[in-house]
Amino acid sequence: MTTPRPSHVRAFDVDHVPVVVVPERLRLWLMMLLTFVTGVVDVVGYLGLDQVFTGNMTGNVVILAMGLAGASTLPVAGPLLATTGFLAGAAVAGAVLGRSPNGWNRRVTVLLGVGVLVLLAAGTILVLEPGAGGSAVGVALAATIALHMGSQALIARHLAVKDMTTVVITSTMTSLAGESWHGKAGPRWLNRRTGAIAMMFLGASIGAVLLLFVHISVPVFVGAGLTALVVLLGARRWAG
Asked: In whole angstroms, what is the distance from residue 63 CA to residue 82 CA?
């Protein structure tokens, strides 16, 4: 007969630093927060930085294709640079995390911590340059934020929380409709899938309100603050 594992036990991360294993629910909520952040910053990119997505690369590819096809109202440079930045961010994060086991470790903390600094810097520039919009500054900011989002996406894969990509919900919606609604997955998966969709929607909604009625920099600072919260809780309470 095996003895049930207590809800909190000691473990060691890749750098041999003792950490605490926490219930799966906290891990799930940390990924939910990062999904919310994606919704917030994607709104900034699309509404404030010349119709560029910073986290949703499917949207960028479609916008780029239409722009190249001759749609004069759609940008080309913005989505192209943002997609390139996203790929670069994912590549760097992959190189950093490639040899470490799945789960939270100091490398994850550093990568997300750099992301917090990126968002803080972007928000500060938007305060100093409120008319960035579709200018070269705005395009550069979108690409820089996308760099962090690419890193975040790779980190989410590394942390391997089921159904939590943090940057896209197309596959989540597919699983929800094709599995959860037909009894192929229990209520647990139904709740997390609907939760991910809701968090993306909520993040985009709040981001839009803040951008339209307060200031374009505010949702970026909100994203930075929530990412910092994830870093703090993850570094102290997550073990992989």
From this structure: 12
